[in-house]
Amino acid sequence: MVRRTGEQTRTLLLRTGMQMLLERGVSAGVQHIRLQDVLRRTGLTTGAAYRLWADQSDFHRDLAVAMMRMRVIGPADAMQAAVADLMASGASGEDVINAAALAHVRTATLDMADPTDLLDAQSFLIALALRTTADTWPELTEASHERHRESVEAFSELYQRLMDAYGMRMRRGVTIEDFSEALAAIAEGFAIRALEGLEHPRYDLDGDDGMPSGEWTLLGLAVRSLVAGFMAPDDDSDAGRAASRT
Predict the structure, then answer these.
(1) 10 with 52: CB under 8 angstroms?
(2) What DSSP string runs through 79-148?
C-alpha cells in the first residue's frame, strides 16, 4: 500500500469533511462535523489526524476555510447561464432582470433541477452561513473577504457586459463595483431569509403605475429599482439611444 504524505492525508480529511457538510446541509458553523466521524469514513486512525491538527478546533478552522474557498462553478457562471439564452433571443432588459432574480431565489431555496447547480447552491449557502462566523478565526476572515472580492469582481464583469448589451452606463459618482456591492448585499440578505425558512414574496403585476407586468419576485423588483438608481441610458451607444426613445 502506498503511504500518503501528510499533505495528502490533510487534503483527504478536509475533502471528506466538506462532503459531510454538503450532505448535512447548512449550519452556522462546522462544529457538528466531528473529526472522529471524518476519520471513520476515511478509514484512517486518530494518530493520522493529530499529527496534522493539535485538536478539534484546529481541524474546524481549516475545514471552515476550505469550505469558504470551495467553488463548484465560477461566481457569476450560474447567473450568466440563466440569462444567456434570453439575451441571445433579444429579450428586454427587464426580462433579463426578472430571470436572473428568479435564478437566485431558486439557488437560495435549493430549488435546482441540475445536480451541479444544486451542489453549487448548497456550497453557496454553507459559505454564506460560515461568513456569519468569520470573526472566529483570522484565517476564516481572510478567506471570507477573498471570496467576496472574487464575487464582486466576477459580477462586475458580468454586469458590465449586460450594460454594454443594453446601452446603459453608470450614473456619475458611482461605479459598477458599487452597484455589485449593493446588489450582493440585497441578494445575500434574501438568501439569509431563505435560510430562516421565510418564503420569498412573489407578485403577479399588470404593468400599471410604472411597474412591470407578469410574475416577479421581490428580489427582481429590488434589482429593477437598483438598476434605475445606479444606471442611465448611454446616449453614445446605439442601444442606449434606442432605450432613451422608449
Answers:
(1) yes
(2) HHHHHHHHHHTT--HHHHHHHHHHHHHHHHTT--SSHHHHHHHHHHHHHHHHHTTGGG-HHHHHHHHHHH
Collect all residues with Cβ–Cβ distance below 8 Å to 173 and sequence separation of at least 6.
none
**pTM as predicted:** 0.88
Alpha-carbon gap, residue 86 to 101, rounded angstroms: 14
Distances in Å between the Cα of 121 and the Cα atoms of 53, 107, 115 are: 30, 5, 10
Long-range contacts of 43-46 (CB under 8 A, 24+ apart): 44/9, 44/12, 44/13
pLDDT grade for 25, boundaries at 50, 70 and 90: confident
- What are phi and psi for residue 133, nearest 5 degrees? -115, 20
Collapse the DSSP code of 197 into the 3-class scheme (helix H, G, I; strand E, B; otherwise coil) and give the result. coil
Residue-wise pLDDT for 112-121, tens only, equals: 888 888 899 9
Q: What three-state secondary structure class fits 200?
A: coil
Hey, what's the cell of 179?
452597484
